[in-house]
Amino acid sequence: MTTVDRTALDLLAGLFAGEGAAEYFGEEVTQAEHMLQTAALAEAAGAEPALVAASLLHDVGHFGALTAAQGGRDGDVLMAGTDNRHSHTGADWLAQWFGPGVTEPVRLHVAAKRYLCAVEAGYFGRLSAASVHTLRVQGGPMTPAQAAEFEADPYAHDAVRLRRWDERAKNPELPVPPFDHYRTLLAGLLDGPSALGRSASA
């Protein structure tokens, strides 16, 4: 593992241990517990490494540390009623090190919730109260035209799989592996030398 790889993984680990230890907005788990549970569910389902990584990192866009101009935790803005577009913030930030197999399911995981609420009977009824609140802020269920556009995206299927694990990953009693369990998997997905210049400014 190169110095660049270690720096990137240490930065991610620091986010999980720092801001990740805070409550996950309106849920009974912390942000880190939620993301670790999502990754554990993906791994248990036999998902490919990139999708496991996307599941692990899907909510990093909630961390205020990713946006220097953001006052307080970025997710607080969402809960207060303004769409923080954390899916896009997270995906764009992760693109410093990871390819689209990781970043695009992250980018689409909010859209996947809106999609499932539009096309799958009963899905809305399984959302937590906090997820129902954020759905309204994020635009509500998709229109038929929006759903068709979503389905045409090459990463839509992965985003839907991630979303299903996401909704289940809110169990305060579920034991899961720590962040370090995923270091080797993440290291294998890093872009390598192409990330050298970018990681220094992260």
Number of strands: 0
CATH superfamily: Hypothetical protein af1432
Largest sheet, in brief, is: none
Low-pLDDT residue spans? 68-73, 78-83, 192-202
Radius of gyration: 16 Å
Task: Work out the strand percent.
Answer: under 5%
Global structural class:
mainly alpha
What would your notes on this structure say?
- This is Phosphonate degradation HD-domain oxygenase.
- InterPro entries: HD_domain (IPR006674), OP_Dioxygenase (IPR052567), Phosphonate_degrad-assoc (IPR017670).
- The protein has 202 residues and is an all-alpha fold.
- The protein has one domain: Hypothetical protein af1432 (Orthogonal Bundle), CATH 1.10.3210.
- It contains eleven helices and no strands.
- Helix 3 packs across helix 6.
- It is globular and about 45 Å long.
- The C terminus is likely disordered.
Sequence-ordered SSE layout with sheet pairings:
Elements: H1 3-17, H2 31-44, H3 49-57, H4 74-79, H5 86-94, H6 100-119, H7 129-137, H8 144-151, H9 156-168, H10 183-187, H11 196-199
Provide key terms for this protein.
single chain, mainly alpha
Summarize the structure in short:
The chain is an all-alpha fold. The protein has 11 helices and no strands. Helix 3 crosses helix 6, helix 5 packs antiparallel against helix 6 and helix 6 packs antiparallel against helix 8.
